[in-house]
Write a structure and sequence with these properties.
- Helices cover 39% and strands 19% of the residues.
- By secondary structure, it is of the alpha/beta class.
- The longest helix is centred in the middle third of the chain and has 18 residues.
- It has a five-stranded parallel β-sheet with strand order 3-2-1-4-5, sandwiched between helices.
- It is built from 18 helices and 19 strands.
Length: 467
């Protein structure tokens, strides 16, 4: 590691910047966000608007007063517009023994100015030692997506609440326990939603709970993991699985997403397969309730979206009946993810003005009692979840209800994942398509004219390649 990261405290600190042009202005824009006293030693002349932009934040000094500025400075930045002034400024700073950063001259630098992400009291800095500043900015951009804007107010809330914690909790272990729970639990969730007064009240309630040994009830988050591609996981879902103490997950949650769960969290598989419920649904309810009653931060991680054939409604009802606080975080439904991955528009002005989601099997495991006449109408798309095993009966009933045997269909297994399989054909040959491709599920059946669009595109590509 060539760079050793460190942060300067800027309270009552002095900083010197040499320059008066655009490069100096960029550095001062960063410094002006701190509490430091900034002295600008101009090199030739100051650019128009420079002094006005930083009015009240900078002191402008001529070069013959550089020594006085450097004598009290914690560090200096050299951003002169002439090489002669730059060289002289470096010599002066070296004489006073303070660290310097020289713009566009990494060989002269004692430190670099990294790409900075700021959320109130939380500051993240990404540096490359000048080797790849664009890449450093790319990393910062990725961090920005993972750090909500309200993390800044949350950090300020924590700063202001710290004296109260020291007042109530003398034991250091209990203080750590409080901050772990506050910044990863309900107070943090409320702050992230912009409910700062409620977050403060939740902090106070949590503080009293930890101060007095009463039973603490945890919160359960029912979280949609999406169709499998970890990049399709929502930012809120990612934050919650990073903060969870225990995660109850389905078998449809991909290994790549499970790898994002906090390392020291307990992972419990409660997955189901057709005719093989490894953990019955009522027992899943009991496991979540028990973990919450033990004060744990609980995540119920489900493939797709919890409220789209994911039994999320049943679980939410059971938790609330038990007096457990629960919330639901939506995920990208497998129908949307698979369609996008396949290039299959679920609606289209020329082909489908109606979109219907149905399940392929009832609670008993048999074919559900659906309105087959309505589903057989043309100019609509029917997406069947969990329909691989009942596909022969589904095709038969739709054809009997009047849907044309030539209606295009698509079957997508493991959509958005590296092992995705997608096949196309007609409603009449749906069972044979599944058998020939060896599809076992999880898979979606997409029935309707839009299913021909990706197939036609593939055929066109093949003919162009052959030509």
């Amino acid at each position: 590691m060539r760079l050793f990261p460190a942060f300067f405290y800027t309270d009552n600190a002095h900083v010197t910047v040499f320059g008066g042009g655009e490069e100096a202005r960029r550095k001062i824009r960063l410094l002006a966000k701190t509490s430091a006293h900034i002295t600008v030693v101009i090199d030739t002349e100051i650019e128009p608007g420079f002094a006005e932009e930083f009015a009240g934040r900078i002191t402008i000094a001529p070069r013959d007063m550089a020594g006085q500025a450097l004598d009290r400075s914690k560090f200096a930045i050299v951003a002169c517009r002439t090489q002669e002034n730059c060289d002289q400024s470096i010599i002066w700073a070296r004489e006073y023994g303070i660290p310097i950063n020289v713009v566009d001259q990494p060989e002269e630098c004692d430190f670099t100015v990294p790409s900075i992400l700021e959320r109130g009291e939380i500051v993240a800095a990404v540096g490359s030692g000048g080797a790849a500043p664009v890449l450093a900015k790319r990393v910062r951009t990725s961090l920005e997506a993972l750090m909500p804007q309200n993390m800044g107010p949350l950090s300020e809330l924590a700063r202001d609440f710290r004296p109260r914690v020291y007042e109530v909790l003398e034991d250091g272990t209990k203080r750590r326990q409080f901050w772990e729970a506050a910044l990863n639990g309900a107070p943090a969730d409320l702050a992230m939603d912009g409910k700062f007064d409620d977050a403060l009240a939740a902090m106070e309630a949590l503080l009293q709970d930890i101060a007095s040994p009463a039973n603490q009830i945890g919160t359960v988050h029912i979280v949609g993991a999406g169709p499998g591609d970890p990049e399709l996981l929502t930012l809120k879902a990612f934050r919650l699985i990073q903060n969870a103490d225990i995660v109850f997950h389905d078998r449809l949650v991909s290994d790549e997403i499970l790898d994002l769960v906090r390392r020291d969290a307990t992972r419990v598989s409660v997955g189901k397969a057709k005719a093989n419920h490894s953990v019955p649904q009522p027992e899943i309810h009991e496991l979540m309730i028990k973990a919450a009653c033990e004060g744990q931060r609980v995540v119920r991680l489900k493939g797709g979206d919890p409220f789209v054939f994911g039994r999320g409604g049943e679980e939410l009802e059971a938790l609330r009946d038990a007096g457990i606080e629960a919330s639901v975080v939506p995920g990208i439904s497998s129908a949307l993810g698979c369609a996008a991955s396949t290039g299959l528009p679920l609606t289209h002005r020329d082909h489908a003005q109606t979109l219907t989601f149905v399940t392929g099997h009832a609670k008993s495991g048999e074919v559900p009692d659906l309105d087959w006449d309505a589903l057989a109408k043309p100019a609509q798309t029917v997406v069947v979840f969990m329909g691989v095993g009942t596909a022969p009966t589904i095709a038969e009933k739709l054809i009997q209800a009047g849907r044309a045997t030539s209606t295009p269909v698509a079957v997508i297994e493991n959509g958005t994942r590296p092992n995705e399989i997608k096949i196309f054909g007609t409603l009449a040959e749906l069972p044979q398509l599944i058998t020939r491709a060896g599809i076992k599920g999880p898979a979606l059946l997409v029935i309707g004219e839009v299913s021909a669009i990706p197939a036609e595109a593939l055929a066109k590509l093949s003919s162009e390649a052959a030509a």
